[in-house]
Amino acid sequence: MSKKKLLAVLTGMVMAFMGLAGVGAASAVDQQPEKASLTVHKYLGATTNLKHDGTAIEAGQLPKAPLQGVNFKLYKVEGVDISKNDDLKVAREISEHAITVNEAKTEITVNSKTYTIKPAKPASAVTDTDGTAKFADVARGLYVVGEGLDGSAKIMNGAEEVVKEKITPIAPFAVTLPMTNPEGTAWNADVHVYPKNQENTLDKKVKDAGKNVGDDIVYTISTTSTGADLNGDDAMDRKDLGGVYEIVDTLDPNLTYQSVIVKVNGQTVTEGENGYQVTKETTGDPAQDKVTVSFKGTTLDTIAAGAKVELELTANVKKDSAVGVIPNQAKLYPNDWAKKNDKPVTSPEVKTKFGDIVIKKVNKGGTALAGAVFTVHLADKDSKSCSDLTKLGPVIKTSEATGENGLVSIKGLHLSSFVDNKEIDDGDQVPYCLVEKTAPKGYQLLPQAIEFKLTKEGTVTDLTTAKAGDGSFVQVTNFKNPGLPLTGAQGILLVSVLGLILVSVGVVLTVKRRQD
């Protein structure tokens, strides 16, 4: 090969090498994009042990419960330029700040400096059938994502509607667009986030069968927590709940708190640093007992991972209670966000109903009788009958004596027609049995109990207003003792007269003999 050709080949090789080196240098310096997209994925349920690094997660790894119709808001943090190193530090500090709902819409103060927040472009997006809401062509910057359940229309999980009031919305969070990829080697301009909604429910039941004013009634409050790795640390524990899981029951003024039994996953939990704490305070006017059960330590970790939680709360109906209906409703604060923003999940309201039996004592002519006293019992539960006195329940209450108008009431009895927060059909009601303890003077005790169903709630203050058929009134008729005959009275009278005659004759004969 000639020197000229060899030089040409060497020159070509050098130029080729320089070209390759230039490509390599260009790819090593990854310029931060000026635009990025954000895709928000919404599901019910947990995604623990899955990556949360801004990249897309394979569909097969996700829960089978995408939420359609959830409205998301995007806000830009003004004054933070993430193309500068120092501002990336600020972005990190803001992201670590617990952003409140109000801050997400106005301004954030971090390290004594306030940053204005304004709606981004685009400012909102709604999840579609696969649970995704996409913000496309977003200018580079630091953003805050907020969830607007109030502004969401109907939220669907497939064909099933999800009640918005039972969903705990996510706390607002900050995100940089674009963000660094998981390997730390390049910029990710297609950011995916997977905040999870938790559909929290709280149920409440009451067991009040056979309970009257002055007795204890038991409320069962239950919920099942939905575990989720909300902070993306590959664990489900108390940190995901912000250290808060509380059930609050503000009792009606006619109730007094007695005790509570707490169970998690069917196991009784003891009060303490790894169990729960009960706080009772007096609030309202008239005064009410507000009972708060706050879960602690390892029990809180168990709940954060998903668990059934049950409270059996016992309350006493005050003896001087004169209301006909006592309602009760509980609240659940499933995390710190719900507590701080006062966004509890509420239970159904349950009711216990009481009333008065008004008794009128009369004779067969309808005239009022004073002085009658009654005891009240529940009928035999099996036969629902008062016919066999030996099968009646114990004495519930004893009345005062009927007045001159024949009236008396027995107050604060549980309605026959409403038990355990349910209407009871007439044929299934267990009636009350009135047993006469003392009859009016000159009248016979009734040998059989009087069957009666109490169906009218509330206190009867004017007994004269109670009428037959109103669900509280019962009229009881008494009969006089029959007159006892004086057995053999005429014979005794005759003997007595004859005796007097004989005595008289004897006296006359005695006198005559003395004269003779």
User: Main β-sheet, in a few words?
Assistant: 5 strands, antiparallel
Briefly note the structural class of the backbone: alpha+beta
Could you list the spans in which at least 5 consecutive residues all have pLDDT below 50? 3-28
The averaged pLDDT comes out at: 85
Number of strands: 35
Shape: rod-shaped
Radius of gyration: 42 Å
| Spatial arrangement of strands, main beta sheet | 4-5-3-7-11
Number of helices: 6
Straight-line N-to-C gap: 208 Å
Portion in beta strands: 35-45%
Tell me roughly what share of residues is in helical segments. 10-25%
Core attributes:
516 residues, alpha+beta, five-stranded antiparallel sheet, 6 helices, 36% strand, rod-shaped
Layout of strands and helices, then pairs:
Blueprint: H1 3-28, E1 35-41, E2 43-44, E3 71-77, H2 85-95, H3 101-105, E4 107-110, E5 113-126, E6 132-139, E7 141-147, E8 156-157, E9 160-161, E10 167-168, E11 173-177, E12 179-180, E13 187-188, E14 190-193, E15 196-199, E16 203-207, E17 216-224, E18 246-250, E19 255-264, E20 267-269, E21 276-283, E22 288-295, H4 297-304, E23 308-317, E24 325-328, E25 330-333, H5 336-340, E26 345-346, E27 350-362, E28 373-378, E29 397-398, E30 407-414, E31 418-419, E32 422-423, E33 432-438, E34 450-452, E35 473-477, H6 489-515
Parallel strand pairs: 1-14, 2-15, 27-35
Antiparallel strand pairs: 1-6, 3-5, 3-7, 4-5, 7-11, 8-9, 10-15, 12-13, 16-17, 17-23, 18-22, 18-25, 19-20, 19-23, 21-22, 24-27, 25-26, 27-30, 28-29, 28-33, 31-32, 33-34
